[in-house]
Amino acid sequence: MIRSTQPPRFVTAVLDWRPTAHVARLALVSAYLLGAAVKVGDFPGAVAEQAHFGMKPPALWALLTIAVEIVGPLLILTRRWLWLGAGMLGVFTLLAAITANAFWTLPAGHDRFMATNAFFEHIGLIGGFVLVARLDRQERTA
Fold it and tell me: Using N-to-C axis directions, what is the helix angle for 110-141 and 19-41, rounded to 10°?
């Protein structure tokens, strides 16, 4: 029996529904928007977080982090310079993964396992940013 490579009709309907792309972009950037809101609401905590990761001066890095977590998502959601927003968040996510989830520095065990998972989840997000930028470019050039 030969199986069809076409998706079922309900999948096609969801993918073709106009708001799907916007909802997907919102889902992709939601953690960054929430992170910015939390940091703005507790700026001393945001500064302490940067100090914890050895970033100096921590207040400057907290402000830069908030800016990236607001501007990047807005560029993606509005599709104005989406490529720039995706690039900003992709680079930010890679640097954060290396800084906060350096699993290769940890001994075997639960902490290393958790850091490894978090690191590769961040890599997956970076892939999502590349895909959203590529799809946007394809749609604009079609």
Answer: 130
